[in-house]
Write a structure and sequence with these properties.
Oligomer: homodimer
Distance between the termini of chain A: 38 Å
Largest interface: A-B, 39 and 39 residues
Helix content of chain A: 25-40%
Shape of chain A: globular
CATH architecture of the largest domain in chain A: 3-Layer(aba) Sandwich
Largest sheet of chain A: 8 strands, mixed
CATH superfamily of the largest domain in chain A: Acetylglutamate kinase-like
Number of strands of chain A: 20
Radius of gyration of chain A: 23 Å
Strand order of the largest sheet of chain A: 3-6-2-1-9-11-12-10
Structural class of chain A: alpha/beta
Strand content of chain A: 25-35%
Number of helices of chain A: 13
Number of domains of chain A: 3
């Protein structure tokens, strides 16, 4: 007997037929004698519709009321799934964030879970009842509904699994696991049986939209065994685990990409202490996040060029902020380019293997792909290249690192 | 300065443009210096959609989960209206049933309000905040969401008005008040400026769908001044008040009709004590309500005919139950007719005026309309006639009782 948390995303509960499919999976897990808690998202499209209504209602909406409106989608799914489970002979009841309670801080729209009291769940499990929990939502210390940010149901699931001391947290989605690369681009991409938390974290934050980044952080911190698998197929997915659970660790586990960034270069910047702070201060003041940053060595006259990336949506605002501050920043020219892609190779194995970055640079050079910006961490190397090379770069790297399926 | 409860039905909040219209009305009331609580229904069509989803999910759904699903519509409207009000510069916040709390009994799907704690509202009113309350919903002693039955937002409004000691409870709807008769049928129908609680109660229960019956009962019991008015026009509606507030009371205030009943006749029933209980027992056991009942005098051989009406939807079930019990009920024949209409004249004035029923019978006879069943109460006379006479009967009676507009 085990204790399992199952989480189903929006496409897995998109209509009643799919909710019945979900109920059958839950029933099977329950009939194995397991304690089962199910976390559900809103039916596909519902949350987007609610967000549109809020946006149409007012340009700037009170986030406390935004949360009241957008949390309703998960409430509906939870009720419907409980009804369908009961109809299949499985005792089940729905739980809303405030009923558990799933206590969060007061950061409406992107609240963080602080505490989950699971005593009642323990009692219900003993009485062989399935808990159907509305994901994405919690309750603040003020007694108001909060939401956890887009993709927040993943975090609800991992947090509940941690609080329940669950043996596994199964994240059911519309893909059957985590791949070495996006299979829509790299046909030879392989599904990974296992991946480490660290790698999954990099993948999530680098644009692979399988899990919400925060849910992976929490799984790592709380040591929750997460499995990503398909709600439409009957086969094992990808387990997200500790490094020591993976016997043969590849040097590179996966290759991610993000078309979501844009490049900005300030030419002829003063090369003296404090200049970076002067440049990035106004951006931060405008809530514009900067990702990759490179500063060239000073060329002549103590001037340098500074290149960095921002999210594409922020590009025009960032350019405006920099132009307004040209005098103070004393740069000579400002250029920008939204047609770039960030390609990253990820693997905890590279900690103990030299030459991973070199292999990447050589492979790209061989294909005539110019690297514009480089940034590295302990377990990843990211480069910025022209967007038109996306497919070529991904496929070349996938082959070079020996990831291609047979 | 007054304290006003305003309630807006589904058609009044059907889309964001209409929600803005509602917000403008709320703002106007608020800017007169009044304390304002607003009760909102779900946007038109939303609750029906949610009910369909539940029905599709399972033939017999757990009513606790039904309530979780169908209460979500009001939650969305409350959040959106609070956002729009804030956008117009009016401080407002949404309140869900469990947040107030609007305490009800545990009769899910048709719960009754037991207690409303309004202390927090008093504080918020003093701070000049508008309370936007999700109608139709409450919370049970088990901490589960309850709903008050279709049209329940009317009851939410009246109950809140009573708890808040409000000066008025304005029910905004898509008609501009209560009419002497359905204006779609009787062109000369007039809007009433005032109507008594008792009359409104009869009208509501006899098929005029302006207010939920239970909300009128509560208004009468708790002495809440209710006004029915249009959310689309700027003119006074109909005040529902105590009898002594109406100076010149007409004998008949209005004429209602219901096409929702069907007639059943048992021919040749034993005319002896206990037979009625024997007949209506099996119907009650099958949750079939019987409305009008007449039993003819015994004709010969101590046998009689018994006629009664049931809701049209229950007709086939009722017939089946009676046929299954034919032996025990020992009737000779069973006939039924769904093509009937119940026409009722209503007025507290008839308490002190004889001949009201006679006027009705004569008027119908003059038009050649045969009366099939009669039932009366202190302030109403109802007759069952063939459905094809609906319009003729209503128009004749409207004229006979002097209700026609000039």
């Amino acid at each position: 007997m085990a204790r399992i948390v199952m989480k189903f995303g929006g496409t897995s509960v998109a209509d009643l037929e799919r909710i019945r499919n979900v109920a059958r999976r839950v029933k099977a897990e329950f009939e194995r004698g397991n304690d089962v808690a199910v976390i559900v998202s809103a039916m596909a499209g519902v949350t987007n519709g609610l967000v549109s209504q809020v946006t149409e209602a007012a340009q700037i909406a009170d986030l406390r009321e935004y949360d009241v409106v957008v949390s309703s989608g998960e409430q509906v799914t939870a009720g419907l799934l409980a009804i369908v489970l009961q109809d299949m002979g499985v005792d089940a009841r729905s739980w809303l964030g405030w009923q558990i309670p799933m206590e969060t801080d007061d950061s409406h729209g992107s609240a963080r879970i602080q505490n989950i009291d699971c005593e009642e769940f323990d009692r219900r499990f003993s009485a062989r009842q399935v808990a159907v929990v509305a994901g994405f939502q919690g309750i603040s210390s003020q007694g108001r509904i909060t939401t956890l940010g887009r993709g927040g149901s993943d975090t609800s699931a991992v947090a509940l699994a941690a609080a329940l001391n669950a043996d596994r947290c199964d994240i059911y989605t519309d893909v059957d696991g985590v791949y070495t690369c996006d299979p829509r681009i790299v046909a030879k991409a392989r599904k990974l049986d296992k991946i480490t938390y660290e790698e999954m974290l990099e993948l999530a934050s680098l644009g692979a939209k399988v899990l919400q980044t925060r849910s992976v952080e929490m799984a790592m911190k709380r040591q929750v065994r997460v499995q990503v698998l398909s709600s439409f197929e009957d086969k094992p997915g990808t387990l997200v685990v500790d490094e020591d659970e993976i016997v043969e660790q590849a040097v590179v586990s996966g290759i991610a990409y993000s078309r979501d960034e844009a490049k900005i270069t300030l030419l002829g910047v003063d090369d003296k202490p404090g200049v970076a702070a002067k440049i990035f201060g106004p951006l931060a003041d405008n809530a514009i996040n900067v990702d990759m940053i490179v500063q060239n060595v000073s060329t002549h006259e103590a001037r340098t060029d500074l290149t960095f990336t921002v999210v594409k949506n922020d590009l025009s605002r960032a350019v405006k902020v920099l132009q307004q501050n040209q005098e103070e920043l004393s740069y000579v020219d400002l250029i920008w380019d939204p047609e770039v892609v960030k390609v990253s190779v990820i693997g905890v194995g590279m900690r103990s293997h030299a030459g991973v970055a070199l292999t990447m640079f050589r492979a790209l050079a061989e294909k005539g792909i110019n690297i514009q910006v480089i940034s590295t961490s302990e377990i990843k190397v990211s480069v910025l290249v022209a967007e038109e090379y996306t497919e070529l770069a991904l496929r070349s790297l996938h082959t070079v690192y020996g990831l291609d399926s047979a």
